């Protein structure tokens, strides 16, 4: 089966003071967390040119023109781009999960390695609480894209459905980081692009 890693990194990061894709090391780390996927697609938005310059040459990117509408717009853009390819499932993750590494994605993929990859719905959980990354089989992409509005992403679609929860609390906290004070040492992180402030 073919799995694409779908990394959402389009937001302006207003509380962070810069797009999270431009916080030093975050974009590269998030791409590296998807190393067990066959390929990676990154959805960019705010300051997309500066963020694209940080990506490895073998990583594809697409720009969500309506990224300011929220995470739902980024997810729609990514899923529609994947629909033209041959992947049977995708791992959706976020750029602002600094402690979620490749071992979390690896466990998620292994636990959901069933006979019908296009129908899979699974997500990482941390101490029983559902989080990211989320594994979506191709059969669900169109439905998720239709339901993704504002900052809700796949939440409305996943809510009434049976989703395999894969406990990863021993590997990471899964907590997203929205402000400089959220970072592990409590200090602002660097901006490799030299740009600062919300777009």
Description:
The protein has a single domain, classed as Spore Coat Polysaccharide Biosynthesis Protein SpsA, Chain A (Alpha-Beta Complex), CATH 3.90.550.10. The chain contains 6 helices and 7 strands. The protein has helices spanning 26-32, 48-52, 71-82, 102-111, 141-147, 155-158; strands at 3-9, 39-44, 60-63, 89-94, 121-126, 129-137, 164-167. The chain has a 7-stranded mixed sheet, with helices on both faces. The radius of gyration is 16 Å and the shape is globular. The termini are far apart. 43% of the residues are buried. The model is unreliable at 184-199 (pLDDT under 50).
Quick description:
With about 200 residues, this protein is α/β, with parallel strands linked by helices.
User: What strand order characterises the main sheet?
Assistant: 3-2-1-4-6-5-7
- Count of individual beta strands: 7
CATH superfamily, called what?
Spore Coat Polysaccharide Biosynthesis Protein SpsA, Chain A
Overall number of structural domains: 1
How many DSSP helices? 6
Task: Please tell me the overall pLDDT.
Answer: 87
Rg is: 16 Å
Give the oligomer, counting copies of the same chain as homo and different chains as hetero: single chain
SSE pattern, N- to C-terminal: EHEHEHEHEEHHE
CATH topology assignment: Spore Coat Polysaccharide Biosynthesis Protein SpsA, Chain A
Q: In which range does the helix fraction lie?
A: 10-25%
Coarse morphology: globular
Q: State the distance separating the first and last CA atoms.
A: 39 Å
* CATH architecture label name: Alpha-Beta Complex
- Low-pLDDT segments: 184-199
């Amino acid at each position: 089966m073919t799995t694409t890693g779908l990394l959402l990194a389009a937001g302006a990061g207003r509380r962070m003071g810069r797009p999270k894709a431009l916080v030093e090391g975050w974009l590269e780390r998030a791409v590296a967390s998807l190393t067990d996927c066959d390929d990676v697609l990154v959805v960019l938005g705010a300051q997309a040119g500066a963020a694209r310059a940080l990506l490895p040459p073998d990583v594809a990117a697409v720009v969500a023109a309506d990224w300011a509408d929220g995470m739902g717009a980024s997810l729609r853009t990514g899923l529609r781009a994947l629909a033209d390819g041959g992947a049977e499932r995708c791992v959706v993750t976020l750029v602002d999960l600094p402690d979620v590494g490749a071992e979390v994605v690896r466990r998620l993929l292994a636990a959901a390695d069933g006979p019908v990859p296009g129908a899979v719905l699974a997500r990482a959980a941390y101490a029983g609480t559902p989080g990211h990354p989320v594994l979506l089989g191709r059969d669900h992409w169109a439905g998720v894209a239709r339901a993704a509005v504002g900052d809700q992403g796949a939440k409305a679609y996943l809510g009434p459905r049976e989703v395999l929860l894969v406990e990863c609390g021993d590997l990471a906290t899964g907590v997203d980081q929205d402000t400089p004070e959220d970072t592990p040492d409590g200090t602002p992180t660097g901006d490799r692009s030299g740009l600062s402030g919300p777009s």
